[in-house]
Amino acid sequence: MLISQPDDKNVKKVQEMDRNGTNALKAPLLQHSDSVTVTVFQPSPDEVRKTRTIKFKIGNIKCASCVTSIESALGKVNGIKSVMVSPLQGQAVIKYTPEHINVKAIKEAIEYLGFQVFDFPEQDIAVCRLRIKGMACTSCSESIERALLMVDGVKTAVVGLAIEEAKIHFDPSLIDSDDLIQAIEDAGFEADLISTGNDSNKVHLKLEGISSNEDVTIIRSSLESVQGVNDVEMDTAGNKVTIIYDPDFTGPRSLIQCIHEAGRHPNFYHASLYVPPRGRETERQHEILGYRNLFLWSCLFSTPVFIFSMVLPMVPPYGNWLFHKLYNMLTIGMILRWILCTPVQFVIGRRFYVGSYHALKRGSANMDVLVALGTNAAYFYSVYILIKASTSNSFEGQDFFETSAMLITFILLGKYLEVMAKGKTSDALAKLTDLAPDTAFLLSFDGDGNVISENEISTALIQRNDVIKIVPGAKVPVDGVVIRGQSHVNESMITGEARPTAKRPGDKVIGGTVNENGCLQVKVTHVGSETALSQIVQLVEAAQLARAPVQKLADQISRVFVPVVVVAAILTWLGWFVPGEAAVYPKEWIPKAMDAFELALQFGISVLVVACPCALGLATPTAVMVATGKGASQGVKTVVFDKTGTLTVGKPVVVSTMIFSHIPIQEFCDMAAAAEVNSEHPIAKAVVQHAKKLRQQYGSNSEYIAEAQDFEVHPGSGVSGKVGDKVVLVGNKRLMQACNVSVGPEVEDYMSESEQLARTCVLVAVDGMVAGALAVTDPVKPEAEQVISFLRSMNISSIMVTGDNWATATAIAKEVGIGKVFAETDPLGKADKIKELQLKGVAVAMVGDGINDSPALVAADVGMAIGAGTDVAIEAADIVLIKSNLEDVITAIDLSRKTLSRIRLNYVWALGYNVLGMPIAAGILFPFTGIRLPPWLAGACMAASSISVVCSSLLLQSYKKPLHVEDARGPIDYSNSV
Predict the structure, then answer these.
(1) pLDDT at residue number 157
(2) Predicted local confidence at residue 221, as pLDDT
(3) What are the strands of the beta sheet with 126-133, ordered from one edge?
(4) Measured between alpha carbons, how far is 728 from 771 in angstroms, rounded to an integer?
(5) Partners of 56 in the β-ladder
(6) Where does the HMA domain lie (predicted)?
(7) What is the pTM of this model?
(8) In the sheet that 508-509 helps form, which strands lie side by side, from edge to edge?
(9) What is the model's pLDDT at position 853?
(10) 838, exposed or middle or buried, with CB in 10 Å at 0-12, 13-18, 19+?
(11) 972 by DSSP, 3-state: which?
């Protein structure tokens, strides 16, 4: 038994005594400890990865000898790596390897010593995300969820078919990610680990200077001793380490420093940030390429088979050579069709065998089962025909190899269209995380608060309580509080507010927003998973996992349809074979060179083939490819609009000018523009642009705006400068009061009117007197009012949800005709409003353009992104309005309804053939009319149903827009608004 050495804290105490002198000597050298640690042996890095930790509450611990007896006894048990017992708290923390011992055995070992082990305390719940391959339909995702929930220790499991991921909450003391992957593989799917724990509080480091396993052990031990480190994963092959940490206690720079300090001469260690590659897009492209290649190879073999079977025999004498007999009744055509069909059936169509095996293993039947049954029935019956023809000189039978080959080709086409139609959902998350800048300026201070150094570091190295400098035009890297400086920050990505927000010491700033003008010093308050960006990522992620595709309807039908078809085929075969053997029907009914068994087999196979759900598989994806209407099945009843950039243009413009002096309007605007030309504020740019338009209107050939002398920015108020020999002030009422410029009743009335219209009033003072005012606003899109009115005529209500203030939001809503408004709402609030409406049973469409809209776009039944919006919003949406025109909202909803109607019509075509064809294939007309549906003709009917489905979908190409807004006012120009 090895007693542990004094910990690092005590060593640091000694060092502090040397530095601090006599006061430090009063502190005891060894601090009181509630625990004694026993190390059984030093594990290797591989063994550490396989260990787990369990905590117990233990009763009747009375003294140190009790602790010793527990530790000694458990230390001898195979599989237990270390034991730590706290006598005061009555707790035991045990590290063990699950391969050798389980939790129950450990508990029993302690009870055997005479101690009571009370309830198992609630362990920390771990989270892991897995990428899953091989899912074809919603029944696959449901099967995986069931398989995971059956694993002991799994609390919740959610599988997202659209993004091919699973998010699992589990008890790490009972299972780990390897067990979860094994459970998924046992269910017949492939799984890879994406992440464990919280990605945002995880850092990946590349190590240099490692030459032996001892180095790995030293680094691991050093990291695990750091307060706040929750998990250390070493990759010895790649010399990499992944650390999950608590940002309240440590951070990436501290961990890198810890690794550096762990090295001793001659072994010095160096660590640097490492960004693991993103493999999702590569995998998606590989999947698309795989299905495309399978489809093309299948076409290469199937097309000649179809021509040899269905085309050339119809155009004599070109097809006569196919009927040339090689041996007995065996023809050239049969041999060629068999040779070409075999690779399609067993090589290209292998995935259907694998899918069927795993589905049957799970006790379910999906579309793969029907495809495998139908194609195998067609293929092996054709092989039987081929053998019978080669052994008989009088047999007249028709093979249907083309049915098998064309079935597989059509199904692969459907699969290819499906993977092509999948949205690149992961791109939205990737672009969100990329919004933060790559680097930041870290400041160091002396004891008096003066800056002594400024270093540019990676954003990933920022820790809580760091002070960073943000220069004008730069993005804010993380959330924090301003401690020095003044500026305006564009927060439209979070709030939706087009106007930048003034920032002073004490104000909060949000990661990803843009600093417009002044220089700021910011103290970091939130990093990792706590930042606003990370919370938006988590919202989008959770919403994507909860979504289901349109294909669900086909899968639900196939669950019932597959068993019914198989039973019907068996009953058909028995219904003809048994009466035939018992001579119930005349022998004349049996065709020449056939017996009762073969006739019954043909009827049974015809039922299977005619019912094979190729058209069922194509019904949804073909319609989706022509016109995506993912949420149409919900029947949208409410459309939620964002304001800035969606209902409005998203760019401030001058809409009105009021003169309170004798200065001509052009001269007045030129002076205002000269004062504003050096400002980066969006309102300043609107004033300058307005002056340029006036110059063009009054016939001036020059667009040049003179610059003011002695230019000065007054943060949060405006600007000032000298234009010619006149002092010009441009800003708000606060600036006028600060410069002792009186604001008369006439000016006050104009300002009040502007505020009621949700306009920003910019006052312009010349030589100490208010000369005029400019009203600036974000104008409403010309088509907005008509779109809202048309939606009302479609019995669809409209709601506005915006991060802007109540006054502006209410004014805009009144202008466009929206009655219900939610203002001053953050991104989390927008998604919550969507969910509140959905809980009332209302299907909701969301229209937005910004990053702050992405959680709501994903949460809505249908998300519509304005084409001019951010990439993140576009990736998060179901539908993108490319032209950024609101009338396309109506087009999207109407097209979605038409698409749903077309999908239902496709199901009618697909199932109609089956409903009508199955009784005929089963021989219901044969006793009365002699008409029967041989397998090859059943295959032709199946192909015809697929063609009808594709043609039905292609009819959507003739779709016309229900609303086309032609603005009678023409292009809006506010230059004359005086």
Answers:
(1) 87
(2) 87
(3) 154-160, 165-170, 126-133, 190-196
(4) 10
(5) 92
(6) 52-118, 126-192, 201-267
(7) 0.52
(8) 451-458, 439-445, 467-470, 520-526, 479-484, 508-509
(9) 79
(10) middle
(11) coil
Contact indicator for 376, 356 with CB cutoff of 8 Å: no
Q: Are strands 726-731 and 718-723 parallel, antiparallel or unpaired?
A: antiparallel
DSSP SS3 for 348: helix
pLDDT per position as a tens digit, 342-391:
999 999 999 888 888 877 877 777 667 777 887 888 798 889 889 988 98
Distance of CA 410 to the CA centre of its chain: 30
Alpha-carbon distance 68 to 118, whole Å? 20
Instruction: Single out the residue of 449, 451, 482, 487 nearest to residue 471, CA to CA.
Output: 487
Domain 199-276, CATH number (from 3.40.50.620, 3.30.70.100, 3.40.718.10, 3.40.50.720): 3.30.70.100
Distance CA 686, CA 825 (A): 26
Look at residues 557, 701, 662, 667 and name the one whose alpha carbon lies nearest to residue 620.
557
Quick check: 763 and 732 in contact, CB under 8 A? yes
Domain ranges for the chain: 47-119, 126-195, 199-276, 280-432, 465-526, 551-626+896-955, 634-647+780-877, 653-777
**Bond preceding residue 919 cis, omega within 30 of 0:** no
User: For residues 718 and 675, is the Cβ–Cβ distance under 8 A?
Assistant: no
| Angle between helical axes of 935-954 and 401-421 (0-180°, round to 10) | 30
Q: Write the DSSP string, 179-222.
A: HHHHHHHHTT-EEEEEEES-GGGEEEEEEES--SHHHHHHHHHH
Q: For residues 785 and 787, what is the distance between their CA atoms, to the nearest angstrom?
A: 5
For residue 973, give the nearest of 706, 690, 663, 563 by alpha carbon.
Answer: 690
The one-letter amino acid code at 700 reads S
Instruction: Read off the tokens for 593.
Output: 């060179």
Cα distance between residue 411 and residue 375, in whole Å: 11
Count, in order, helices (H) and strands (E) of the chain: 32, 37
CA dihedral 662, 665, 666, 671 (to 10 degrees): 70
